[in-house]
Amino acid sequence: MQIAIPYNVRSCLKPLSVMNYVVKLFPEINLKSASLRKRYITALQINIHTILSAIDPAIKVQREWDRLVVQATPDADQVALVDALGRIPGIQKILAVRILDTLDPDLMLTAVRTAFGHQLNGKTFAVQVKRSGKHEFTSLDLARRIGGALLDEFPNRGVDLDNPQVPIRLEVNAKNTVLVEAEHPGLGGYPLGTQEEVLSLISGGFDSAVASMQFIKRGCKVHYCFFNLGGAQHAIGVKQMATRLWQRFGASHRVRFFEVNFALVLAQILERIPVGNQGVVLKRSMLRVADRLAQRWEIPALVTGEALGQVSSQTLTNLNAIDRASETVVLRPLVSWDKPDIIEMARRIGVAELAASIPEFCAAISSNPNARVKLAQVEFDEKNLDAEILQHAIGAVHYFDIKDVMQELKTAQPLTGLRCVTSPHVDANMPTTNDVIIDVRPDAHTRPLAPQLRMHAKQSMQHIPYYRILTEFAELDQSKNYFLYCDQGVMSSMQVAHLHERGFSNVQVWRS
Q: What stretches of 278-386 show up as alpha helix (H) in DSSP?
């Protein structure tokens, strides 16, 4: 049904050619004092303009008492604008609106007809009105007037006030009328930069990514500290994770990325620390480095993705022992989360697929971890470590601006995936009778081989612990091909990546 629009009302409908967005604030912001609320809204206004100006250079963001109004140009990509707004911390919801320069109910009705008439065919609807200020009509009067006209003029299934298929919302104030055409959810939380900074120990997996996100959402600038245990491929994956989080949720602020080569530290831990305490000592070593970085850059807190009881190093006793290595407070936003919930959140924020391709290296270093370490024993064990190796790792930290990391990734080799792919079939990747299998498990002499490996045990087989393979591989017969084996494929993948970086092409991971 075509509705003729009288000439005298076209001036009020002119704004229908331009979409605007009303940004509703995260409710906690409105509970703040007037001065603090103003500071938060101003910060959000700046953040929105910074992000959206890359999509629409002429974007305007106007501040009101309890909301922001975003004015886009007619040719702007509206889908991209809504998507970007939905990922900016501090926004509870986004209303796509047409702002009508009128308080006349007849002109409001004409605008509603134009905007919603084509949607009403065979559907239920409801007209909802909110008013602020004094008018010649009540909210209920206006809703009934517009709803009654729509019932008479369009083929619909009637009014459903509880669950309408087409909700029609009008917000009338002292100056104009806002016609809400669509509502989109926001991220919530506080505007980025309104809280203090944190340093996230990011491994690339589900846990550290989601933990980082929780603090972005809470208004913190999140810097990233990466302990490289798996070579160039591991670094590519983690840098992709950090830049993805930053691009999607934190691009209004510049942050830093710290890369720490921890291969030598890990090798010494595996060689000199009793098996049961290796995981705790590794994390204590990481915290010592992160603590130094946080103090140097005046970052007041560290963030990890640890969840209580998820692995043996994450019991309360062990977390307490780990925390003693850092003067900087350690925050764990996922401490009571279940793993399925963490994975689901990773999916919702768009990082699950990438996280699934990056193994949690530090979770696989010991076969019989102690669930309740003795702090005194751990501190005694650490005396066997060479302090200069840790100091060297601190001194050799690479510092990047997050935008420099993005530039590096543009020329980096594609991430081929670090997890071992298993197959029950023998294929070209299986060793032949002339190849050598190297068992890199530190405690291989006390542990049985996997059933699939026993079938090939008659072949040439050697035991070289993980932490010695890098120094001893060059001494092996380079005319042969070598297959590295460990229980989960994580240590072997790490070392194969390191050896490939050093130019050895005759080594690969055992794929059972």
A: 278-296, 316-323, 339-348, 352-356, 375-381
| CA max distance for the chain | 94
Give Cα 330 to chain centroid, integer Å: 19
CA 9 to chain centre: 48
Q: The domain 198-411 belongs to what CATH superfamily?
A: HUPs (3.40.50.620)
CA dist 84 to 45, 48, 195, Å? 14, 9, 21
CB of 347 within 8 A of CB of 260? no
Angle between helices 339-348 and 206-217 (to 10 degrees): 60
Helix, strand or coil for residue 130?
strand
**CATH 3.40.250.10 occupies which residues in the chain?**
436-509
> What pLDDT, in 10s, does the model give residues 481-497?
998 887 666 677 778 87
Distance CA 453, CA 449 (A): 6
Superfamily (CATH) of domain 436-509: Rhodanese-like domain (3.40.250.10)
Please tell me the distance from the alpha carbon of residue 167 to that of residue 114, in angstroms, as a whole number: 15
Mean pLDDT for 178-201 is: 95
Give the tens place of pLDDT for each residue, 202-220.
998 999 999 999 999 999 9
pLDDT at 17: 41
Question: Burial, 82: exposed, middle or buried (Cβ in 10 Å; 0-12, 13-18, 19+)?
Answer: middle
Which residues touch 484 (CB under 8 Å, ≥6 apart)? 438, 440, 469, 491, 492, 495, 496, 507, 508, 509, 510
Terminal alpha carbon distance of the chain: 67
Q: How many CB atoms lie within 10 A of CB 428?
A: 5
Q: Is the pLDDT of residue 95 over 70?
A: yes
- CATH 3.40.50.620 residue ranges of the chain are 198-411
Query: Would you say residue 34 has pLDDT above 60?
Result: yes
The label of the residue with tokens 């949607």 reads 119
CA–CA separation, 333 and 311 (whole Å): 16
Q: With bands split at pLDDT 50, 70 and 90, how would you rate the model's confidence at 458?
A: low
Residue type, 185: P
Of 129-138, 294-303, 427-436, where does mean pLDDT reach its minimum?
Answer: 427-436
Whether residue 428 is predicted with pLDDT greater than 60 in this model: the reply is no
Q: What's phi and psi for 350, nearest 5 deg?
A: 85, 25
Residue 220 falls in the annotated catalytic set: no
